[in-house]
Every structure is written in structure tokens, then in C-alpha cells.
Amino acid sequence: MTGPETTVLVVNSGSSSLKFSLVDPAAGVALADGIIERICEETSHAKLGYRDQEIAREVRAADHDAALRLVFDLFAELGGDLDALGLVAVGHRMVHGGQRYHAPTLIDDAVVADLAELSPLAPLHNPPGVLGIEVAQRILPELPHVAVFDTAFFHDLPAAAATYAIDADVAAQWQIRRYGFHGTSHRYVSEQAADLLGRPYGELKQIVLHLGNGASASAVDRGRAVDTSMGMTPLEGLVMGTRCGDIDPGIVFYLARTAGLSMDEIDTLLNRRSGMLGLAGENDFREVHRLIDAGDAAARLAYEVYVHRLRKYIGAYLAVLGGADVIAFTAGVGENDAAVRRDALAGLEPLGVRLDEARNTSGDRGARVISAEDSAVTVLVVPTDEELAIARDTLAALG
Ligand code: AMP
């Protein structure tokens, strides 16, 4: 068997986890992938798949450095050989590029320093991202490292969509604007949608619904993102697994002044203990459905709140775009949960959206059409692949 000519290691470093994927960009496949979770805790959990083998075990990863070294050890244990696989670069998922960074960027010391400076904009996400870069550079110093930004696809939002209606001087001083996130996924999925339909990307008006544990919607007008639901931070917009999405900002003042919560407590409440978890006690939709089937009223309400918000955004983006050619569902919920897709689009026939229920529930896995033949808007399920998109962007940045 001949191996791939070039592979890219994609690293996605979170505060207590490190996800990685060894991608063959030409073939569009991951050769190996896995995750180390609970880094810095007493025991960490490691999972790595390579070819058709898998390791899943409790390990000790005292820090991110140890975690990444462990990845290579486990990979070697399964017979993997990075040299033989033609590893040429490392692509890093960075959540926030601020105003300055949007194109995939070859990382040098100045870039690392800049990214560290952006940390106040994304305090939960950028510091572990920078840490991941530093660790990977230490372990693989001979390879080029490239940062790919989650905000990139939205850097060019029209000012009307990117601007918050607050004091303009304050906004400018503190770089407050809609940045948007999950951009790698929104771009990948909208490009795949055009491919699937055999239509030019630059001709389609698309609504992309990235519904995972984090969730976001975007309106893509002939290749350009013109609106998105996440904002200055990933907290705004749709109801998510553990985040509230849109709420009245007055609730924050009320929780601080009247309920006496600290800013950190409110941050935790809205980012980690809200959304489906806050309403239903579960953030996994499979569990939410199980609870609903068992007659749980809180889970039913959570589901209805989720679907209602989603419908509002679909309606809003139909208006922003002046009608759509495509609505594309992606990520864990979007790809797997036929009920969410059905309920979010129910009754939208007057707006040109008609689902085919047999297609919607077919159980197929790949990119596929789920609307009826006579639907003016083509509804798609398109599996996202952020790692592949990052790997391709990484190679593109290297020319
Ligand atoms: P992601 O963030 O894209 O990995 O999505 C993770 C979420 O997808 C989980 O928290 C679940 O809510 C949801 N999910 C995954 N598999 C299924 C499934 N078979 N049915 C419904 N929801 C699913």
C-alpha cells in the first residue's frame, strides 16, 4: 500500500482537553484522530484511533505538553510512523483572531505574542489555543505551524451586521463587534453544499445551521457571510448545550445587583449551566429525547425553546438574504437529529421550504438532500469536517 504524500497534524487545544487529527488533505480523510481529556487532573482519559485500531485508556497527563507527547506514544504503539506518513505541517484551531487575523497565518514568535494579547477577547478559548501552539512547537520544532481562525469566515461581515448599537467610541476602544465563530465549519459546509448541488458557490444564498454542543447559524450570500448568530463571544444566538444564546442583557445587571452574583458566577451560569442543560438538566439531545418520551415536562419545554429560537433565526436569515436557495444542517444535532430538523422547518411551506420526511429520517450518513423535489429551498444535511478544512487551509498558507 502506498501512503499519503503529505499529512497535516491538526491540533485543537482546549482548557482541559487536546483534540488532534492526522489528516491527508488530498484524500480528504483523517488517518488518525483522538482526544486527551481531563488534562491536569489526577487521571486523564486518552482515546486514539488509527486505521481500524483504537486505544481508549486512563492515563496521566499532567499538562498539555505531556498530553501531546502521549499522543505520539500512543500513535507509535499502534504502529504509526509520522515520518512514513509525510507529516509536513501542524494546523492549529484558534478561536479568536480579533480584528487583525483572518487568513490562515504562519506562526512565528510575533504571532504567538499577538495571539496571547488577544486573550481578553476570548478568555476561555484563546489561552489554551496559545498553549497548544507553544507545546506543539516545542515537540515539532522543525515543522511549520499555522493558525486557522474560527472567526475568519466572518471578518468581512457587512458593518450593519457586525456593529452593536452601543456607544461607538466605547465599541472602538474595546474592539466590541460581532466576530462570529464556527467559521471554518460554516465555510466548509456552504462550499460542500454547492459541490453537492453542482452549483457555483458564488451563486447560492445559503443558511447554514451548525448545531452541535455549541450552535450557530449563518447567512451566506453568494459566498460571502453576511450575518451570523454568535457575536463578540460564542455566547450569543441560538440556544446551545450549556449556553443560553440570546438573552436580555438586563438580566446580567439584575443577577449582579439584585441576586448578588459575581461576574464570574454569572459567566459560569450563562456559559456552562444554561441552554439545554439549564432547562432540561441534560445537554445531549439523545438524553433530552429520552426524557421527553418519558413525559418530562422540563425537557419538553427545553426542546420547544430550542426549536423556537432556531426557527426565529431561519426566518430572520430568509429576510436578510431575501430568500434562500439552501438551508444546510450540520454538526452533532444537525446531522443526527431528524426531529429537530423537522420541527425547525415545520410550517415553512409558504416560505418555500418543504421537507421530505422519508429523506429526513432515512438514516443515511453522508451529505444529502432532505427536502422534497418541489421545495423551492433545497434542505441539506452536510457533515462538517473542521479538521479537514483546517488541514487544507494550513497547506494553502504554506503555498
Ligand atoms: P458536536 O458539538 O458537533 O460534537 O455535537 C455534540 C452533540 O450532538 C451532543 O451533545 C448531542 O446533543 C448531539 N448528538 C450527537 N449524536 C446525536 C444523535 N444520534 N442524535 C441526536 N443528537 C446527537
Automatic annotation (TrEMBL):
Cofactor: Mg(2+); Mn(2+)
InterPro entries cross-referenced by the UniProt entry: Ac/propionate_kinase, Aliphatic_acid_kin_short-chain, Aliphatic_acid_kinase_CS, ATPase_NBD
CDD domains: ASKHA_NBD_AcK_PK
Residues holding ATP: K19, H210, L211, G212, N213, G214, D284, F285, R286, G332, V333, G334, E335, N336
Cofactor, free-text remark: Mg(2+). Can also accept Mn(2+).
EC number, as in UniProt: 2.7.2.1
Cellular component GO terms, alphabetical: cytoplasm
Subcellular compartments: Cytoplasm
Pfam families: Acetate_kinase
Binding site for substrate: R93
Entry's Gene Ontology molecular function annotations: acetate kinase activity; ATP binding; magnesium ion binding
Residues binding Mg(2+): N12, E386
Catalysed reactions listed for this entry: acetate + ATP = acetyl phosphate + ADP
GO biological process, one term: acetyl-CoA biosynthetic process
Family named by the database record: Belongs to the acetokinase family.
PANTHER family named among the record's database cross-references: ACETATE KINASE (PTHR21060), ACETATE KINASE-RELATED (PTHR21060:SF15)
Physiological role: Catalyzes the formation of acetyl phosphate from acetate and ATP. Can also catalyze the reverse reaction.
Subunit text: Homodimer.
Protein's name according to its UniProt entry: Acetate kinase
The species this protein was found in: Mycolicibacterium brumae
